[in-house]
Amino acid sequence: MTEVTELSRPEGQSHTREVLLNLGPQHPSTHGVLRLVLELEGEYVARVDPHIGYLHRGTEKLAESFSYTQIFPLTDRLDYLCPPSNNLAFALAVEKLLGIQAPIRAQYIRVLMAELARISGHLLITGALPLDLGAMTALLYAMREREMIMDLFEMISGARMHTSFCRVGGVREDLPDGFVPRIKEFCEIFPNRIRDYERLVENNRVFLKRTQGIGVITADDGIDLGLSGPNLRASGVDWDIRRDEPYEIYDRLDFKVITRDEGDCYARWRCRVEEMRESIRIIEQCLDQMPEGPFQIDMPTVAFPVDKNKVHCSMEALIQHFDLSAYGFKVPKGEVYSAIESPKGELGFYIVSDGSAKPFRMKVRAPSFVNLQGLFVASNANYLADMIAVLGSLDPVMGEVDK
Amino acid sequence: MSIEAPLNRTPITERFGEAIVDLGFAHGVHSFAAPPEMIVELCRFLKEHPALQFNFLSDICGVDHYPEMPRFEAVYHLYSLPNKWRIRIKCRLGDPPCVPSVMGVWRTANWHEREAWDMYGIRFDGHPDLRRIYMWEGFEGFPQRKDFPLRGYKDKLNPFGAEGPPPTQPDLATRNIP
C-alpha cells in the first residue's frame, strides 16, 4: 500500500524521470569502441552524448615525426575498411605541394583500387546494418564477396588489409600478371550478388519497418552538421567530389551520383548499395581505358628508380637512393588542403610544410568523425532500439573517428 | 587546380576592406587571414552572401607555430556547395589562444572546436560544451603542441615518456568551461 501512495502524484504533474543509459564502448552494434551516453525519457532518446577517443593513436602528432613515405602506413589505419582511398588522399595532397602528377597508368591503378576499396567498405555496412537489426544472412554473403576483394588486394600489394600501395608520384608496383582476368571475373559476378543482397532485405518487413522513416536527416541539417558522402546524398544533396572537383582521372569516367530524398536509415543503406554498382562500372572503364606506361614518376628526388639496375651502375642513382631511404624527400614550403570522395565522405588532408622532409602539421579531415555528429539530429525523439539502426546507417569507422 | 571558376573576391573586400588580408590562391584554395574577433562575422557573411554561399564547413584545425610568435593559428576550411569553391581562413592567435566559436553559424563546428581545444588548448569562446574529445577527462596538457613530447611525460602509467617539467597551464587543461 505504501508503494501506491508513493507513486500517486498530484494531478496535472507528470512524474517522469530521465534515465541515463550507457551504450558501449564494448557493444557489438557500435561498430568499434564507441560509447554513447543516452538520456532516456521513457523509451525515447532525449539526448545523446557520444564519447569517442578509445582508439585515439595520435596519427597527426606521429606524422609530424615521420617522413612522407612513412606516413602511408599510418593513413592505412584511419579507415581500415578501405585503406587505398586514404593512401590516395594523402598522396594527392603531397603531390599538389610538390607540383607533380602521377603517370596516367598509376592514376588508373589508384582509382581502380580506391573503387575496390569503396565496394569493400560499403559491403560491410550492407551486411552489418541488417545484422544489427536481426537479419544475419546478409552479412555472411557480403563477407563472402568482401573476401574476393581482399584476395585482389593481396594479389596487387601482398597485403589483405593495410595495402600501403600508393606512393608519392605513383604506386609501388605495376599490376601483377593474371590480375586483369581475376578482376574481370569479379566484375561479372558481383552485380548479380548486389541484386541478391537487395532481395534479401527489400521485402523483409522487419528491416523495412525498422529503417524506413527512422533517423531522418534533412538536407539542411545534413549540410549544417557537415555530413558528407552517402550520408548526405541520402538526404538529397547532389554532391560528389569525384564529379564536382575531379581528381586523378575521374573526369574521364562516366558514372552516376546516387542520391535519394528520404534521408532515413533505409535511404542511407540503399545509397551505398547502389553506389557499389557504379563502382563496378568505374572499375570496368578503368580496365578498358588503362594505358601501358610507367607506374611511377621518373623523378629521382622523389621516387625510387623503376629500373633497379641504375642503382647498381650509377653513382648519382645510388646516392639519391640512399638519400631517399635515409631522409626522405623534401617538400617545398607551403600548405595544401586536398579532399577526395572516400567511401565515407569527404576525406581531406591539410598539410603544412616548412620545407623539410617531414610535415610540419598534418590534419586529417576524417569523414566518419564529422558524420558521427549526425547522431545529434538523427537520434532525436527516436526509440532507444532505433539508435542501433541510426548508428549503423551512419556507418562510422572508429579508426577514422578517433584518428 | 581542379576548380575552374576562381572565387569572386570583391564582396569580401568591399565588406571588410583592409581587415581581411588576401593570401592568394594556391592548390585550388583561396586563403585569407582574418583577426580572431572578426571570425564569426566573416563566416556568417561568407555563408549568407548570395554570390558566395560558403554553406559547408569542411574543417577547423589548430596549428602550433612554436617557437614563432604569435604562436597559434586556427584554420577554417569552407566549401561552397553551389559554386564548388574552397576557401581557407587563417586566424593567428596569441598565447593563451582564444577565438570566438562559430557554432552559431554551423553546428558541425562543435566537434572540430572540441578537438582543437583538446589538442592545442585553443579556447573557443561561446562554445556551449567545450570538453576534451579524444583525451580523457583530467588529462593535463595539450598533446599536439610542439613543446609536448611525442611519447608524453613519464609517470606511473607511461614509463617510456620524457623526463621533464609538468605540462604548461594545467589549470587550463582541467577546467571545464561552461
UniProtKB/TrEMBL annotation, chain A:
Keywords: Cell membrane, Membrane, NAD, Oxidoreductase, Quinone, Translocase, Transport, Ubiquinone
Record's signal peptide: none
Enzyme Commission (EC) number: 7.1.1.-
Compartments, as annotated in UniProt: Cell membrane
Cellular component, GO annotation: plasma membrane
Protein purpose: NDH-1 shuttles electrons from NADH, via FMN and iron-sulfur (Fe-S) centers, to quinones in the respiratory chain. The immediate electron acceptor for the enzyme in this species is believed to be ubiquinone. Couples the redox reaction to proton translocation (for every two electrons transferred, four hydrogen ions are translocated across the cytoplasmic membrane), and thus conserves the redox energy in a proton gradient.
Name of the protein this chain belongs to: NADH-quinone oxidoreductase subunit D
Pfam family name, one: Complex1_49kDa
GO molecular function, one term: NAD binding
Family to which this protein belongs: Belongs to the complex I 49 kDa subunit family.
Topology of this chain in the membrane: Peripheral membrane protein
Quaternary structure, from the entry: NDH-1 is composed of 14 different subunits. Subunits NuoB, C, D, E, F, and G constitute the peripheral sector of the complex.
Ranges for domain NADH-quinone oxidoreductase subunit D: 132-403
Catalysed reactions, semicolon-separated: a quinone + NADH + 5 H(+)(in) = a quinol + NAD(+) + 4 H(+)(out)
EC top class named in words: translocase
TrEMBL record, chain B:
Role this protein plays: NDH-1 shuttles electrons from NADH, via FMN and iron-sulfur (Fe-S) centers, to quinones in the respiratory chain. The immediate electron acceptor for the enzyme in this species is believed to be ubiquinone. Couples the redox reaction to proton translocation (for every two electrons transferred, four hydrogen ions are translocated across the cytoplasmic membrane), and thus conserves the redox energy in a proton gradient.
One Gene Ontology term, aspect cellular component: plasma membrane
Major localization listed first in the record, in broad terms: membrane
Localisation: Cell membrane
Membrane topology: Peripheral membrane protein
Species: Phyllobacterium brassicacearum
PANTHER family tied to this protein: NADH DEHYDROGENASE [UBIQUINONE] IRON-SULFUR PROTEIN 3, MITOCHONDRIAL, NADH DEHYDROGENASE UBIQUINONE IRON-SULFUR PROTEIN 3
Subunit annotation: NDH-1 is composed of 14 different subunits. Subunits NuoB, C, D, E, F, and G constitute the peripheral sector of the complex.
Domain of life: Bacteria
Region annotation (Disordered) ranges: 158-178
NCBIfam families for the chain: NuoC_fam
Pfam families: Complex1_30kDa
Key words, A-Z: Cell membrane, Membrane, NAD, Quinone, Translocase, Transport, Ubiquinone
Record domain NADH:ubiquinone oxidoreductase 30kDa subunit: where: 34-153
Lineage: Bacteria, Pseudomonadati, Pseudomonadota, Alphaproteobacteria, Hyphomicrobiales
Protein EC: 7.1.1.-
Entry keyword Nucleotide-binding: no
Catalytic activity as recorded in UniProt: a quinone + NADH + 5 H(+)(in) = a quinol + NAD(+) + 4 H(+)(out)
One example GO MF annotation: NADH dehydrogenase (ubiquinone) activity
Enzyme class: translocase
Protein name: NADH-quinone oxidoreductase subunit C
Family according to the record: Belongs to the complex I 30 kDa subunit family.
HAMAP family listed in its UniProt record: NDH1_NuoC
